[in-house]
Structure formats: structure tokens, C-alpha cells
Amino acid sequence: MLFRNSKRRVLVLAAGLAAAALVLAGCATGDASSDGSSTGNGSDGSGESEITEPVDLSWLVDNGEATVVMANALVDAFKEIEPNITITIETREGGAPGDNLVKTRLATGEMNDLLLYNTGSLFQAINPSETLVPITNESFAGAINESFEPTVTAGGDVFGVPIGTAMGGGILYNKKVYADLGLTVPVTWDEFMANNAAIKAAGIDPVIQTYGETWTSQLFVLGDYHNVEAAEPGFWERYTNNEAKYADTPAAARGFEYLQQLHELGYYNRDYTTATFNDGLVQLANGTGAHYPMLSFAIASVQELVPDAVNDIGFFAQPGPSADTNGLTVWTSAGLYISATSPNIDAAKKFLAFVATPEACDVQTAAIGATGPYFIVGCELPDDLVPVVTDMLPYFERAGGTTPALEFLSPIKGPALEQITVAVGTGQYTAAEGAQIYDEDVVKQAQQLGLPGW
After folding, report:
1. Is the model more confident about 435 or about 10?
2. What is the pTM of this model?
3. Are 79 and 51 in contact (CB under 8 A)?
4. Higher-confidence residue: 12 or 188?
């Protein structure tokens, strides 16, 4: 990570993240025109036409606490500079139910004007060249960081503007618990498990799981990709080409083994099968649970739910077999998209243009705090960062300290992973069974994407 000035001006992500993410564009499908001509309402494609009459837009976002707070803040700020445009926010569930809603609305032409959704493999799965409006030639597209652009590119066109920040996939932990028990941050899995044993002996739940929201069950598998890549360089490419599988690659299967191991040792909270994301964060903040495998963005929800505890929560990368290769698996932020069926594309582009500014980054920081580096050129991070963010940034600043999550290197991510990780974490499947079932799960998606070798 390259920073400049006292407020840590974010210029680019680590070179490895930028270079590796470029591969995603080459795997994209679709044949939409790359001239950016799908503008509607008589737009010239500049995204700068004046809106003189009242326009109502609808924006679909996930129902996460921090997402809703951030979205409302952006809408309020935008209204001040574009008083003729009113944006109404609609929320949806996260995880598989939310994905299904998004795909159904896009397929039936009933999508809202604006959509906040994933980047990377899940973005590729919604047929963006047919369902979204390209912004390739819009002037505001030039503000998108080069490391983010490939994750919202399909058929040679760019479709989304980043909202939010880069995220680390690792372990949130309670710093007070660590201090009270004299524990140090682990850099290997063996050290992590030794900490868990000491935590359980102290009467505290070592690892929080929240299977009441199934999407949260995936982190031990997905957050381990830095360690997979360290052990099996180029795994993502062989995986994409149907030349490597989770089940027959020990380094890749380890994430499933971690779920099984922790379950068998009784290291999860008692209500882990029904607890929700918010429940997990509150337990972590209260110190009745010590570790929560999660994306770093969750600290924004802690700020909403238990603001007094935000400085008690730290973060470390998911440990692997070796301290020598310890590093962080990284996610890009969500993308803001325009539905191809929107009757108000010009007005929608106005909102995207606003989001692609440092001012909009400041609005997000003021609303939910900075949870990582932004992907808009010129955005700044404040000096008073919370511990989760300060703990995460050194990985970006160290050569070889970060690796993109697999879903940003390969367009393949099986839709049933969250159900499979729940099954392994609850003892319904063994780790070996889970890995094999997941290998079967990705076949249909790879075939739908038309990838060679499948």
C-alpha cells in the first residue's frame, strides 16, 4: 500500500492485488458494446446532463446495519447538491436469499434503478452486459482505482462504482480477553488453537459462529486463500481451468478441516446454529466470545451496535501452517450499479458520479467510520482509525502481505458454499465431504459462464 500525506492519501492497493485482479476481466463474459452508449433519456453518454425536473429513483441495498446507515448518509448528501433527484432506499436480505432476489429482479426486468451488489465472481453471475448500464466512457469512471476496475468489468465494459472500502478476511478478536489472559496475536494455526484452549479454560467461548445468517459461515474457507496461494501458487488459475479441486488439494481443503476441528472441540458458542451476525458482534464486544471469523467491514456494525466497545476489538489475518507466509486475504468493496431497465438512467448516473468523489468517501467515513482503504482516487483516511483498521493496514504495506480472495481471481464461486460450510460446521458433513460437495457445486456455474474445460 502506498500512502502520502498525514491523512494517508490512498493511491493504489498493493501491487499484487492490482495485478492479480486483472485476470478477472479476461474471464468475463458478454458482448455488450464498449462505447458506453446505453444511457437512455437522451443522454449523450457523458453523465453530465442537467436534471431540471423532479426524478424519483429507487436503490436496492442489503439490510446490514452499517450499509443502511451509509446509504442514507450518501442519499442525504446527494440531495443537497441535486435537489431535483429523490432516492428511496429499499433493503433486502443478505446471503443466498438476497442473491436470489437480485437475480430474479434482474431477470424479470423489475430491478430498482440503482443496485448495491458484490464485485468479482458474484457480479459476473448476474449477466452484467445484459442487465446493467455500462459506465466505461463516463468522466467519473476515471476516478475508480485501477485495482478495483477489473472486478466490475465484463465484455470490455466497466459497470460499477465502488462503495465502501477494501476489506480483510480474518479474525476479529476481543483485545481485553487477550490482555486478561496474557495472549499474543497468533501467526500460525497451532498458535491460534493454543489460544483457543486457554480461552475455553477461562470459561469464554473461543470462536463465535452465527449460522442464523448462513453467509457468515464461509470465512474459515474463504479467508484462508492467502495461505492456499502461499502453499499452491497459481491455484486459482488451475481451479478456473478445472485442473485443481478443493478435495484433492490439501492446502485448499484446510478451511473445511478448520470448521470440523473447531466443532469437534466444542469451541463454538452454544447458540451458534441460530445466532445472527449482530448477535455475534455483540458477544464479541461483550467479551463472552473471543474470536469471530469475519470481514473487517463488520467493525462498522460494532460502531452502531456497541459503540463503546469499538476500541476493544482487534483484527488479525487467518493464521496458516507457517509464520513465514502469514498474510491477509483481501476483498474489494461492493459496487454501485444502474439497472438496464431503469427509466431514469441520466439521474442515476448523477448519483454514481457523486459516489465517485472524495467528498462521498468523507460522507461514508463520517457515517460509519473508515474500515479500510477506499478505491476512489483522492480519498483520504482519518488519523484516528479504529484498531481493526490499524491492525489491517500493515498487511497492505508489507511486500507479499496480501492476496485477493479467490472470488476476485476466478469467476467461479459455488452458490451453495454457505450451506456447505454450515453443514461442516455443525457436523453434518465431514471436511472431506464438504470439500467434495463444493467441487460439485461449482460445476454448474462454470458451465453457465462458458469457461473452457468444464
Report:
1. 435
2. 0.75
3. no
4. 188
